[in-house]
Amino acid sequence: MDFSRAPRVRPTQPGRFARTAAATVALCVLGGVGSAYAYWATTGTGAGAATNGTMQTVTVVALLGGDTPQNSLVPGGNADAILRATNPNPYAVTVIGVTPNGAVTADASHPGCTTTGVTLTPALPQQVTIPANSSALLRLPNAASMSTASLSACQGSLFSVPVTVEVKK
Asked: Are 144 and 83 in contact (CB under 8 A)?
C-alpha cells in the first residue's frame, strides 16, 4: 500500500479555534462600531436658498350679471351689498374683512345725484374661502344704507362704493 497520497491530518492546537473566533468577533464588532461612529459623527456643510412668493391682488367688482341683490336701496332704508372677489393666486385665500375705502358716487347717467346719502357698513357674516384661480360672491346683508338727505336725482342710480377686501392665505 502506498501511504504517500493519503491526506495529512494536522494535530489540533489547543485554543486556536477559540482565538480565531475571538479575533473574528472582535473585527466585526470594531468594524460595526467604526461604521456606527462614522454614521453618527459625520458632518457636512452646504448652502440652500429659497424665495418668498408674493400674493397677487384679489380684485373686487360689484353686481356682475346674475349677482342681483335681494332688495333695493331706498331713502331711509338698508339693502344688501354684493361683491364678487376674484382670486388670481395658485392657492386659496380667505376673506376676513371688508371696509369702505372712499366716497360713494352715482353712475354717469345720473349727473344730478351729487348728494347720494349712501354709506356702507359692511359686516361679513362669516369668513369666505375663495379657491385658487376663481371667484366667490360676498353677500353683505343690509350693509348699504341711504339717508333721507339723498337727492331725488339719485332715483334709479347704480352706486359705486369703493371697498377694501382683506384676505389671508
From this structure: no
Which residue is it, cell 395658485? 90
Of residues 121, 147, 126, the one with CA closest to residue 136: 126
What global pTM score does this model have? 0.60
Evaluate if residue 155 carries a pLDDT over 80.
Answer: yes
Summarize pLDDT for 35-59 with one digit per residue, the tens: 555 555 555 555 665 556 688 888 8
pLDDT value, residue 65? 45
Bridge partner residues of 61 (DSSP)? 84
